Amino acid sequence: MGKLIYAANISLDGYLEDETGSFDWSAPSEEVHAFWNEHERHIGTSLYGRRMYETMRVWEDDDWLAGEPDVIREYAQVWRDADKIVYSTTLDEVSTARTTIERQLDPEAVRRLKEASPSDLSIGGATTGAEAFRHGLVDECVLVMHPVVVGGGKPALPRGLRLDLELLDLRRFGTGAVYVRHAVRDRA
User: Fold this and answer.
1) pTM for the whole thing?
2) For the chain, which domains are there?
3) Does residue 188 surpass a pLDDT of 80?
């Protein structure tokens, strides 16, 4: 059985994007990129909302990767090797391989997917992630907190929901970013 892991780069004050929609402050160093490569290597299926999918689909294209460092080219292959499900009511088709569209996140379908999966699943995007948290689907939370306060924007974690967590792992990167991994223990 696979675990559903919510994974994100966040600001120290808990945002995925600032008030203008920018997340350039979370551009990973090679060290952080290597961390994400290793994390994603164990993911069999990634669940995305439309906006997160549109951000991530750049990894399907080889044109821009030619002059990039090995760690970035490696991530592209890791991303391509995973299945992807996009939850969207507006997207009519996808432009990447191994990708399907679902009109809404069906909690029972996700539970069945977790039960049948030999590997872990990842969920990304604020809205889709919050929905999964609210339905009690998320088993772990993996966050890389970057040393920046953006003052507002799109919250990384759902508002109005209490979750009791257990710290499983942590690490500090040379840039000052900090990785934390928590198990979701109680959905109060």
Assistant:
1) 0.94
2) 5-186 (3.40.430.10)
3) no
